[in-house]
Fold these 2 entries.
Entry 1:
Amino acid sequence: MVIFGTALLAACYLAGAFIGELLAILIGVQANVGGVGIAMMLLIAAQHYLRKRGLLAPETEKGITFWAMLYIPVVVAMAATQNVVVAVKGGPIALLSAAGAFALSALVISAINRIIHRAHIANEPLPPVDLADEEALVSQDSVAATHSK
Amino acid sequence: MLEIIQKLIAENPLVTAFAFIGIVIWISNQMARHVFHGHVAGSAIAVLSGLALAYWGGLVTG
């Protein structure tokens, strides 16, 4: 049943938000500390655990996939409900923090991508030589040679 | 502790509903399989238990 995946997602979100509230009380902050991040880690762990046990039917997983695909539209909708006028008028802190977060994410994500890419290259055997490609190259070379003559 | 849970549920009604409905449907499916031995559909039990819960909620809240 698809709803089980969505229920798992919702339960992980609530558990993460709960832990975030507890952390906030421990630290003494008037906000939720990392609730969504903890929820994401819980969901990944739960998915891994259930899949290993064979309890995660493909249909159940669709209940998570649907919301994963709606992630960007939700972010767009959330962005559209922000009070941007106040944020921009309130001074450069909001814009600076946005630019800082963007720059940091870009750097970290590109670094992670490069690491993953390298790991893949290291694990892969050498690609087989593609004869068609080579013939194309040779013919291009000969065409270039005839043109230069 | 309870206050935090109450606050979270009040702040995230939709998410809580998804989780709760998932649990209700899971229990209904288990009942259909083990109590009624497949003679009653799990979905039917789930809808009826939804109505029963609504009745209970109505009694409690007036």
Note: The radius of gyration of chain A is 25 Å.
Entry 2:
Amino acid sequence: MKTVRIPPTLRSETGGERQVHAAGGTVRELLDDLMTKFPGLRSQLVEDDEIAPFVNVYVEGEDVRTLEGLDTPVEDGNTVILLPAMAGGAPAPLVAAGSRPAEPASAARSAR
Amino acid sequence: MPTYRELLQQVKAEIDEVDSARARELLDGSESPLFVDVREPDEWNDGHIPGAVHVARGHLESRIEGAAPDQARPIVVYCAGGSRSAFAAKSLQELGYENVVSLAGGYTDWKRNGFPTQLPRTLDAEKRSRYSRHILIPEVGVEGQLKLLESRILLIGAGGLGSPASLYLAAAGVGTLGIVDDDRVDASNLQRQIAHSTETLGDWKADSAKATIEALNPDVNVLTYKERLTSENVDRILADGWDVIVDGADNFPTRYLVNDASVFHDIPVVHGSIYRFEGQATVFKPHEGPCYRCLFPQPPPPELAPSCSEGGVLGVLPGIIGSLQANEALKLALGIGETLAGRLLLFDALSTEFTEVSLRRDPNCPVCGDQPTITEYIDYVEFCQGRPTHA
């Protein structure tokens, strides 16, 4: 079994668990096992059978995209960290939440 | 026991000396050696050789490492007449400096030859006192403090992260702080946004923070931008000239806009974000390390991206992450230490645990990669909202 750290934004899908165990010899097998146990994670982690572009998966502190992607081997005792993008700073409604006027479509302008 | 004169002769025999004319050639040469002035502070304050660093003889052994970290770089050490510098040169040799010479005749002879001199930039008595705890640190010192006073740091957001970051940067004597925030102070902010107070409820956050900063340190010039950062105004705001951006934005469109603008303008960004008990911090240094798009090529779809206003945040958490951001910004401004560039620091307040993961620059990154496809600002709201699921 490997330890998977669940980020706070995904804990509603794991019953509040901060850390869960999953089985598998590769990142792909591990995520499959995880998503079988917690089906709500699927849309938050994968897209088109790839790791979603708004999520990073780290094995022992290394981004699996810089290793072998979903085929990256995971050994017993390894810690896997799931890390979705987090916008929060000064907490305020997200622009996308619609409670703020969305800015007008930006005219493309060269910065250089 | 040798007399002083004998000892001096003995030391001079063990070191190399150059005369003023040769030292002048070295100073003007393409690979100028480091000139180290070992005189007393009052002598230094009356003028010194241009570009020299000041390490008084009495502090030489303990402070030279900070002033001259590279032991292979040639050093010309000088005093007023060439005696103290002879002893200093010997000490430097013993400390492992490989190429040290003493200026024969010292600063007196240099001046007599009509060679260029420079008056040191100094801090007045009030600033010496205010920043005394910085000045005592060899890595900062008077030079570093002067650097901070000339630094310009832009804060995106004067909320949870921007509050502590701006206060510590102001206290540190960063000469110019810019604050971009289009929000007003709300009662629900005061649980963590310590730049504001009950008295400034309803005021612009930028104005409220400016008042707090000015009360803390009148040396700081605060520029306020009471507007939301957009593709339309970002170039105007960045044109005011910033050394570092501290990103404490609360939404993805601004995060991506700040990222792209920082790459286009080549300004390092100190990134921080928080949610409930957990925070993240890193430094994005354009072209040297990864950028935000290398880390997250795309934002999550809005329905998967909860904000702090929905999820909440422990009040002290932005204090910790914002202070880490201030620390990174100060190091970038001073040019010292190792920043978080290439490393993402994760902090869990509930277990009091720091974890680090490594970040790498993506050579295929659309903004900072080898063949960038995004070379001008896009519509960031649309980018973060209407992302097709199957691109």
Note: Confidence is low (pLDDT under 50) at residues 90-112 of chain A.
